[in-house]
Prior knowledge:
With 181 residues, the chain is mainly beta. The protein has strands at 7-13, 20-26, 33-42, 45-53, 61-67, 73-79, 92-99, 102-108, 114-120, 129-134, 136-143, 146-152, 156-163, 168-176. It is built from no helices and 14 strands. It is globular and about 50 Å long.
Amino acid sequence: MLGLGFLFSFASPAHAQDVLDVATFRVTATPDREDTPSLGRDPTGELIVFSTEPEAGGPSDIQYRRIDADGTPSGQTLTVPEIPTLSGSSSDDRRNDTDDGRVVFIAYDEPPSGRVAFFDLAEPDREPRVLAEASALFESRISGDFVIWHQANDVDSEVRLFQLSTASVRTLASATCTVAV
């Protein structure tokens, strides 16, 4: 079964009225389920980054593909290298955000291990860099030199900020959870 893929529409005014001429291009076409698309840019041009999950089950991957200025797909779909896992199996990678040719994502290993990872598309032969580990990770985002995410465990929840240039991390907000027994 062929995955749905992502379609992007590029509109231009057709008349003085509110009518638009729209060109639609299929950017991705894999046999897997595709989700979490994000548009990005690096020195080479525009690109789309997305996650794929095999229809038959199994770990997901992060893929990317270049698009021309008018949205036409160009080149092949490429895959972000996997992070070596603690168990030796494939990690289940979920793309979360793209900025300036860099991707941050959460890679899940055997429970309860999750890792926030960073990958620079300008260095496709390097492994992604692990920024943090926690039992529960959510919503990693990147902007410029900073990566932010939410992490939690049985007793607390934190919003963390990682500065790429200094490899420093700090907690921006935290809360302690109490459980009544």
